[in-house]
Each structure stands twice: as C-alpha cells, then as structure tokens.
Specification:
There is one protein chain. The protein has 279 residues and is an alpha/beta fold. The chain has ten helices and nine strands. Strands 3-6-5-9-4 form a five-stranded mixed beta sheet, sandwiched between helices. It has a two-stranded parallel sheet with strand order 1-2.
C-alpha cells in the first residue's frame, strides 16, 4: 500500500477475519507512504500479533513490484495470496481460492473481484459490467483450459514454488530498453503460465474500489492498455503451446483490438465521403 491510511487497517482486518481453517499470516508492505499508512499497519500488527501480521516499510517509494517482492521473500507458507490496498475479501474467499491448488499443475489462481462502489455514478456502473464480463465470461473460458492470462492484483493466489525461481526476472523486467514498472499482475501471470496451469475461482469473491472520476479512469486505462500490449506480445510467443482452442481464442482477442483503429478510420472515412456526396 501507499498512502492508504483511511482503508489499510480495515483491509487487513478483513483478511484476518477470513474463514480459513489452516495456518495463515499477513504481510503488509508500505511503499514509502507520506501519510500514516505504516502506522496503521503497525496498529494492525499490534492488535493481531506480530506473528500473524507483519508490518514492513520500504522507507521510500520504490514501486509495486519492489513492494510485492519484499513481501514474497518474507513469506514461509506454500501459497501466497495478493490483495490490493483497495480490495476487500468475503469470509470464505481464501478457502475457496486455495482449494484449487490441490491440483499439482496449478501455479496460480485468479479470484472473482466485483466493483464495491458500483452505485456511485454511471462510470462505476459501466466498470461493474466490464468486470463481470472480464471475470465471468473471459476468465471462465480461459480457466477451462488452465490458461487464464491475467490474475489481477486485487485478489489472486500463486504457488510459492512457481514464483520464487522467476522473481528476479519479473522484478527487473525490461521491455524495449525500459524497465517495466506497471502491469505487474499480468506480467507475473505470464511468467507462471509458461510452465504451469492458471485457473479462475468464481466462488472466491472480493470487492474492489474503482475510479469514480474520468481523469483517474483514463490514467488507469492507459497503464492497463500499455501492459496489455506489452504482455500480449510476450504471451503470444508461448501461448501456442497451450490447448489449441485457448491459443486460437487468445490470438483472436489480440488481433481484433489491434484492428480497431483501422475499422474506426474506415468508418470515419466513409462517413466523410458520404456527407461530402450528400452536400
């Protein structure tokens, strides 16, 4: 988390209140916050006990990948679950999510995240529909073939054995001469998907807060689209090794948006031509 003093304690409290029947620990990483985020983490650690909740600070803002990496290296259990600083888990979510790892080939599992503030305005309502399509249509289909292409950072789990070997490469990933500092979730999924199955758990439910202003929404989408282009090209180099239907679906989904500008340009051109003709 970074500068999330108003919500971080509640998020930790939600995680620790999970109906999970086995050993569990929570590692809260502060990415150089300038508010009282770290103090709130320490308060949670004091309340639940330092053995159950560990509060860690990077001191300065290093970015999400650095924060996640620090948290991963501090873990000791077999399954690592990531929860964003604006996401809240249902009580049975962890239990449902971890259940998928009984299959030895599964390296990662995406949870089912809905929009918490969907009733705020028309923008959040539209995002709520988009989330439903992304999870309950796309991820359901991909999961059937063990080829989910993105385990979102808001709520997903990884097998420790699957991510420790690739952690240095993921942490220092470069693309076209530039260090990759966003799209951490899609990138980590790609690293795991090369050698493991990645699934989706529809019954592991969580809620996340989405942007309610267009300026924040557009900035978020710009980051997401950049990472989609980067990681789409990366996945394209190995996804053909997966099930043929999953591969065909992926390449189709990659090509069609790429053709979008051509379609739009053609429509605009024809519209202008038609208007000129009518005039």
């Amino acid at each position: 988390a970074r500068n999330e003093e108003d919500s971080i304690y509640k998020i930790i409290e939600t995680c620790m209140g999970s109906n999970y029947p086995s050993e569990m620990e929570c590692i809260a990483v502060d990415d150089g916050s300038t508010d009282k985020t770290y103090e709130e983490m320490q308060r949670a650690s004091k309340f639940f006990g330092e053995k159950l909740v560990k509060a860690v600070t990077l001191g300065v803002n290093k970015g999400k990948r650095e924060a996640m990496s620090e948290g991963i290296y501090l873990t000791k259990n077999e399954i690592i679950v990531f929860v964003d600083s604006d996401s809240f888990l249902e009580k049975n979510a962890l239990k449902q999510l971890v259940h998928h790892f009984v299959h030895e080939k599964v390296g990662a599992v995406s949870g089912n995240t809905k929009v918490a503030n969907r009733k705020t305005n028309i923008l959040t309502k539209m995002q709520s529909i988009r989330y439903a399509v992304s999870y309950d249509i796309f991820k359901v289909c991909e999961s059937h073939f063990g080829a989910v292409t993105c385990c979102p950072g808001c709520f997903s789990a990884y097998r420790r054995e699957a991510i420790l070997p690739i952690l240095p490469n993921w942490r220092n990933q470069m693309f076209m001469g530039t260090r990759s500092t966003f799209g951490d979730d899609r990138s980590l999924t790609n690293f795991v998907l090369r050698n493991w199955d990645v699934e989706y758990c529809q019954s592991a439910k969580a809620e996340t807060i989405v942007p309610d202003k267009y300026s924040k929404f557009l900035k978020q989408q710009l980051r997401w689209k950049k990472s989609w282009i980067r990681e789409g090209s990366v996945a394209a180099s190995f996804i053909w090794k997966k099930h043929p239907i999953a591969s065909l679906s992926f390449y189709t989904n990659l090509i069609l948006p790429t053709l979008g500008p051509i379609v739009v340009g053609t429509v605009i051109y024809r519209t202008i031509f038609l208007l000129s003709y009518l005039v």
